[in-house]
Write a structure and sequence with these properties.
CATH architecture: 4-Layer Sandwich
Largest sheet: 4 strands, mixed
Distance between the termini: 10 Å
Number of helices: 4
Number of domains: 1
Radius of gyration: 15 Å
Shape: flat
Helix content: 25-40%
CATH topology: Deoxyribonuclease I, Chain A
Order of helices and strands: EEEHEHHEEEEEH
Length: 147
């Protein structure tokens, strides 16, 4: 998808990364630097292992262009944690849905009439919950229109 407006030629770029924990400050620096190098317009992080995320914490692992606009699902115990972030220069969030294993955001382009639904998923590690997880995704799919 191209995000076109008055000479802008920026394309949609989504980076998804299972980071396996963001408790270590050194790891946060590595993650932030790698994301900065990739320069995505949308970032999906899985397995943050963070129980809460505030403006101070988000800036430790996301570059400035992504640290202002985000939604998250906290980790449960030592598992999970999902973060979806987007660049305000390209996207605004018009709606979002939090489920047990997924975070769905409806992003609207600030540069064109495009919109995009992004579902960030972290599946259960206990396979006894797999059918609930798949049902959750199936329920979500019926509410998504368009890309």
């Amino acid at each position: 998808m191209s995000l076109l407006n008055s000479g802008s030629n920026r394309s949609l770029s989504v980076l998804s990364w299972n980071v396996r924990g963001l408790g270590d400050p050194n790891k946060c620096n590595v993650v932030r630097d790698a994301i900065s190098s990739a320069n995505p317009t949308v970032m999906c992080v899985q397995e943050s292992k963070l129980h809460s995320i505030d403006q101070f914490k988000i800036k430790t692992f996301l570059p400035p262009q992504l640290a202002c606009s985000y939604k998250y699902i906290p980790a449960v115990g030592s598992r999970g944690g999902i973060v979806t972030a987007w660049s305000q220069s390209y996207w605004s969030c018009s709606d979002f849905t939090l489920k047990n294993h997924s975070l769905t955001t409806l992003l609207v382009s600030t540069l064109s009439d495009h919109s995009l639904t992004v579902t960030n998923v972290y599946g259960p590690s206990d396979h006894r919950h797999s059918s609930d997880f798949l049902r959750e995704l199936q329920d979500l799919s019926s509410n998504i229109n368009g890309p």
